[in-house]
Design brief:
The chain has 226 residues and is mostly beta strands. Helices cover 5% and strands 47% of the residues.
Length: 226
């Protein structure tokens, strides 16, 4: 389920922009079919209602702003400055998205079904935790020079994640099989000859990212068209 609101301004006087916001909610009972050869991640395959929860593809909020502007600060009365500073084109895309669900997994095989990869923390449904959000801004500055009637030289400067935001990352596969940020450790207890699963220790890095997406990257290029 989802809804999208979009506002767009067509190219007028050298300026264009588009703003879009999406609210969505994806719900399912598992995505085991995405990756072949892995054991199922459903804890209880016989009860779809107990497995139904936020999908690993669920992202509630997503905001995207893109814009293009043709820079022409000087008129014809300032020919020299116009040749240097006019006819540049600035483009950018800003993307902001909320976190995606991650599962509260338990080490071992508490339900004794022979699958040590599908056990969740008692009292929590599928994908009960929320991972970190994501935001980035990409910029591109270009200028086209006409050398001869058939030759064009384009100057390009690009910046990815221009604000150098620390976009934290939780390791999780497309089907939610791997999540290093919510692995609870089962602590055991033995009384006499009887064995009991005692409790689950909260991980020190609960929902804490162990890696990050790419930092700011800047590149320059020359392109000759003939």
């Amino acid at each position: 389920n989802g809804a999208t609101i979009s506002i767009r301004r067509r190219m007028t006087s050298g300026f264009y922009f588009r703003l879009a916001y999406t609210f969505a909610h994806a719900v399912d009972d598992g995505q085991d079919a995405l990756v072949a050869g892995r054991p199922v991640t459903m804890q209880n395959a016989y009860s779809a209602s107990s497995e139904r929860g936020p999908s690993v593809t669920d992202q509630r909020h997503r905001f995207v702003l893109s814009a293009i502007e043709e820079i022409k600060p000087f008129g014809r009365d300032r020919e020299l400055l116009a040749k240097i500073f006019n006819d540049w084109k600035l483009a950018g895309v800003m993307t902001i998205g909320s976190g995606r669900p991650i599962d509260a997994k338990v080490f071992g095989d508490p339900n004794q079904d022979g699958n040590s990869s599908n056990d969740r923390l008692p009292g929590y449904g599928r994908n009960a935790f929320l991972g970190p959000d994501y935001a980035t801004a990409d910029l591109r500055l270009t200028r086209r020079l006409y050398l001869r009637p058939r030759y064009k030289l384009e100057l390009v400067a690009e910046a990815f994640n221009a604000l150098n935001r620390d976009n934290k990352r939780v390791t999780s596969t497309d089907d939610g099989f791997t999540s290093t940020a919510t692995d609870f450790v089962q602590l055991d207890k033995t009384i006499g000859i009887k064995y009991f699963p005692a409790y689950y220790q909260r991980p020190a890095n609960l929902t804490r990212a162990t890696s990050a997406y790419a930092p700011r990257q800047i590149q320059f290029a020359l392109r000759l068209t003939f």
